[in-house]
Amino acid sequence: MARIGDTPEQMSSRIMQTNVGKNFYWPRDMSPREKERQLRDIPLTPFSHLLPTAAEEWKEQIFWKSALHRRPSDDDGWRVHVYYLNGRSVVELYRRVGKPLNEFEINAILSRMRGGQTWRRVPKKEGQKQEDTILGYDFALGEEGADVLRARKQGDWLIVYHKRFDDYLAARKERWDETEAQRKAELAVENEKSAPISVDGF
Description:
The protein has one domain (about 10-165). Helices cover about 30% and strands about 25% of the residues. The protein has four helices and eight strands. It has an eight-stranded antiparallel beta sheet with strand order 1-2-3-4-8-7-6-5.
């Protein structure tokens, strides 16, 4: 269906074929509350503060792909969110709609992206956080320590992304944390100064 590193044109030509896929648009009659819930469900939402903000750098495309062979369906299929950094896809989110996402579909999507390399499952040690990732991953493509792509299942979502994008987010998080620490320190000083005035008269 897709390949990490594609341009928007390549992605569109692959998915938007007759009776296969089309552009996805949120339904006009969707309530604001439901749309907010759907947007909150997107796995990248918790990291929105780390994402690029310049329109020329960052772009999103959303596709709908039918799950039925050469038959259009608006109920049984996939919502595919593709994010481009500087014109190349770096993150692809596959949301299974109509049926639960299963391991055979996961394996089929990953196999289309492996090239000549092999995906390996990354075991998670109980209670131990993955230190080398922002997005988290269950699968890695390539040799251990030199993986190229990573993937993670989250409910009925499959997230596939380039490791370099994970590193990019890690660098932005480091800068964000530094800025947040400074902001909190400045706020603490301000609160300390205003406290006597605030409680004066009790």
